[in-house]
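Request: When convenient, would you put together a sequence paired with its structure tokens?
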Amino acid sequence: MAFDHMDQRRIMGHFATGVTVVTTWHENKPQGMTANAVASLSLDPPLVLVSVDVKAQMNGCLKESNCFAVNILTEAQEAWSVRFAKHGPKDFSDIDYRTETTGSPVLEQALAYVDCRVKDILPGGDHDIFIGEIVAGGAREGRPLVFYGGQYGSLSG
């Protein structure tokens, strides 16, 4: 008997994660999606991974652009997370961004970011795992947005 995916969702909801917006430039416009299935993979070489649903529009965008930025959100940017989690076109009109090495949008007010070239794409069930080689990055002071138990929060202390 297969493990129930709803049990997996409930159990893994007990794992607190940071919240990011993964961005790329595709078809002459910025694209983005909220992601918390993000991890630092290797320091040498510098690699991160992002897991993207195979049915998501962003999956095709990343495959075609061959690059992405991971923008780590602050506790004040919950609205951005909600915006980029929705299906359909994403509105960047009131968000300041710049580009770095790959041309992917880097959100100016994000807590931190890494700019990556896609190094590999691996199948992972109903998701693809995009492994990105970090070519630029930066961070500033602030407090991260946290996701736990299906809700947004922040670190105390």
About this structure: The chain has one domain: 18-139. The chain has a mean pLDDT of 95.
